[in-house]
């Protein structure tokens, strides 16, 4: 188990280096708007659990961010904390929820407008799988802002066009880690993270 391996102040840097695009965008949206709606909280929260955040760390992480927005500490403790404990199997039926796979994320319905910014809909960060659910033009702009080369962007967009979303994600991995062939077949955001960490630390 990874539990307890990550400290909260590493998350910003890790989100840039080792998170798949879906989680990188959710992290950014959370930092920018200090809120995520339920779907995004589940997708991102379970991912963080998968990379090793303990329940205590998760509660601290979400609370710190939410109280910078419109949620006060009391409201957080009464409402959101429950669902976080729940996702760690500490409430309700005590199901220990596992992080979503790419398939589950890709097969979800596209997010409706505002299903992730909660407070003010000022950004257009797309959650779920950005290769599947983003408008290609927005995806292109996003990749440009991440300094992906024009030829790399073309390759990613070709794969998206052919509906090969996970292959597009693999290509994004190769481009951002400067490898020719990732040598595994991607099916889970947490796998992406683990492989990235292996590569960067090895
Ligand atoms: Fe996330 Fe999987 Fe989509 Fe990659 S293919 S962005 S890991 S959901």
Automatic annotation (TrEMBL):
Oligomer and partners: Heterodimer of a catalytic subunit PRIM1 and a regulatory subunit PRIM2, also known as the DNA primase complex. Interacts via (C-terminus) with PRIM1. Component of the alpha DNA polymerase complex (also known as the alpha DNA polymerase-primase complex) consisting of four subunits: the catalytic subunit POLA1, the regulatory subunit POLA2, and the primase complex subunits PRIM1 and PRIM2 respectively. Within the complex, POLA1 directly interacts with PRIM2.
Role description: Regulatory subunit of the DNA primase complex and component of the DNA polymerase alpha complex (also known as the alpha DNA polymerase-primase complex) which play an essential role in the initiation of DNA synthesis. The primase subunit of the polymerase alpha complex initiates DNA synthesis by oligomerising short RNA primers on both leading and lagging strands.
Residues reported in the UniProt entry to bind [4Fe-4S] cluster: 22, 102, 129, 169
Protein's name according to its UniProt entry: DNA primase large subunit
Superkingdom of the organism of origin: Eukaryota
Transmembrane feature ranges: none
Naturally occurring in which organism (per UniProt): Cyanoderma ruficeps (rufous-capped babbler)
Ranges for domain DNA primase large subunit C-terminal: 13-193
Residues of the full protein shown: 266 to 467 of 518
Family: Belongs to the eukaryotic-type primase large subunit family.
